[in-house]
Design brief:
Layout (H helix, E strand, L loop, with lengths): L10 H22 L16 H4 L3 H27 L4 H29 L1 H21 L3 H29 L5 H21 L10 H12 L1 H5 L16 H7 L1 H27 L4 H27 L3 H22 L6 H12 L2 H11 L6 H30 L3 H23 L22 H4 L19
């Protein structure tokens, strides 16, 4: 198909687009820079600059990495649709990524310890870039599933290297703020990555090459850092039975939010194409959903800090369900679906952070890190199933099945949280947690929000403990 048919932009427009992406990242970071002290909102603090400058290369590397992988996620969905893959097949491809993410939680730490942080980052980046390019060279659904498993596994390793470095360099009293800034970079890069779709067509090699270039270039600031490599700590995971006993609403919230958000990341681009949005429209739908989640996490978090967090979770999950209904209705009216996407992102992105804060409320101090790691695995298991389930529903019902999937996952969570809040008083075990905006990355990030939690040093003769 000729380039004009895909609406390719001239050179000056590409430069303007890149400038817009940079501005978008900068503004989002400013909005979310954390001065979060006991429920206050975000504010930019000049006193944070001395702490940010040494880790600037890590944050830049993170942004570049996620610009590449975030672009790939959308390009694959659009390319798969062009190749005629069924929705169920695309759902399995989306689930394969989260299966890899789940595997990487166990496989990546030993590799990082064996190779060291610099070499591990180079190793995982090379593997990720190779997978990105192989998607374009071998257009086959089974091969794509395998490549997505590998990509998910390697991305956990990349997250783990960066997050352990950040954790080691952040003073204990600043870790929460640095974590918030790190999350802002994550969300900003993922939102901006969607706009890169305008630089080419999913049917061509160009977008895959751009994604690979971003992944490769992320090596430069990270491997050039002069920061000393940290020691990767090992923390045992809390048993699932104990987790359920301590906070059943958090247990259910982790699984249900994983099922919903896995489907969002895996199938939103497919949904956009099925309702008739062009490639730019698909990118915009995902972007506004991410920005909605980024911009409203703080107000929702402040609300959750002020009372029974189960009730707050019920309201947020119910709000996400209502937004999904609106999403389904507005999906029939073209670009108006952006409103539904923004509102859904605003509520749905806050569910997992509220769940984590609720769990911390109900764990003894020494169990916080291990409990949060177990919660992360539950969320990951849900995310691995979510895209496949949503894809199967879309193949059966049509594109409206995606917002229906969100409703089926989150409305029962709202009802369960509301029911539990009415049956017993919400009792805090040690001290109340404070909401921190977050998205699922690696278990290492949890150390940044629980800086005083006890971790065990790793020894080669002791295998990591797993959840039973």
């Amino acid at each position: 198909m000729p380039p004009a048919a895909h609406g390719r932009t001239p050179g000056w427009a590409k430069i303007a687009l890149c400038a817009t992406i940079f501005a978008q990242n900068y503004l989002l970071a400013v909005v979310l820079l954390s001065g979060h002290e006991h429920g206050t909102g975000p504010r930019l603090q000049p006193a944070m600059l001395p702490h940010l400058l040494p880790i600037g290369s890590l944050l830049v590397g993170t942004a570049l990495l996620l610009l590449g992988t975030g672009l790939l996620n959308t390009v694959l969905a659009l390319r798969g649709s062009l190749e005629g893959y069924a929705d169920a097949t695309l759902g399995l491809i989306g689930s394969a990524y989260f299966v890899g993410f789940f595997i990487g939680t166990f496989a990546a730490p030993p590799l990082v310890r064996r190779m060291g942080h610099n070499r591990a980052f180079a190793f995982f980046s090379a593997a990720t870039a190779a997978c990105v390019l192989l998607h374009a060279l071998i257009v086959s659904a089974p091969v794509w599933m395998l490549l997505r498993v590998v990509t998910g596994t390697t991305l956990v390793g990349l997250y783990m290297v960066i997050e352990s470095w950040l954790n080691s360099q952040a003073p204990a009293d600043r870790r929460g703020k640095i974590f918030s800034i790190y999350m802002a970079v994550n969300l900003g890069a993922l939102a901006a990555a969607q706009q890169l779709i305008r630089l080419g067509s999913p049917g061509d090699f160009v977008l895959f090459a751009i994604a690979a270039i971003f992944v490769i270039v992320s090596l430069m600031p990270v491997t050039a850092t002069r920061l000393p490599p940290p020691q990767l700590a090992h923390s045992p995971r809390l048993g699932l039975g104990k987790l359920w006993k301590a906070a059943p609403v958090a247990f259910a919230g982790a699984v249900q939010s994983g099922l919903a958000m896995g489907a969002f990341w895996g199938m939103s681009a497919v949904y956009g194409g099925r309702i008739g949005l062009d490639e730019a429209g698909v990118a915009q739908l995902i972007t506004v959903s991410i920005l909605g989640g980024a911009l409203l996490q703080w107000p929702i978090g402040h609300f959750s800090d002020r009372g029974d967090r189960r009730l707050a979770l019920a309201w947020v999950a119910a709000g996400a369900s209502a937004a999904a209904i609106l999403w389904a209705v507005l999906g029939q009216f073209g670009d108006l679906v952006m409103i539904g996407g923004f509102l859904f992102g605003a509520a749905a992105f806050a569910i997992y952070p509220v769940v984590v804060a609720h769990l911390i409320d109900h764990l003894a101090h020494d169990d916080i890190l291990s409990g949060s790691a177990a919660l992360l695995l539950l969320h990951g298991a849900g995310a691995a199933v979510g895209p496949a389930l949503a894809g199967a529903l879309m193949g059966w019902i049509g594109p409206a099945a995606l917002p229906l999937h969100f409703i089926l996952m989150l409305a029962p969570l709202a009802a369960f949280a509301l029911w539990k809040s009415g049956r017993s008083k919400d009792e805090i075990v040690d001290e109340a947690a404070h909401f921190m905006p977050m998205m699922r990355t690696s278990p290492t990030a949890l150390e940044m929000i629980t800086p005083d939690a006890v971790t065990e040093d790793y020894s080669p003769d002791r295998a990591p403990q797993t959840t039973h």
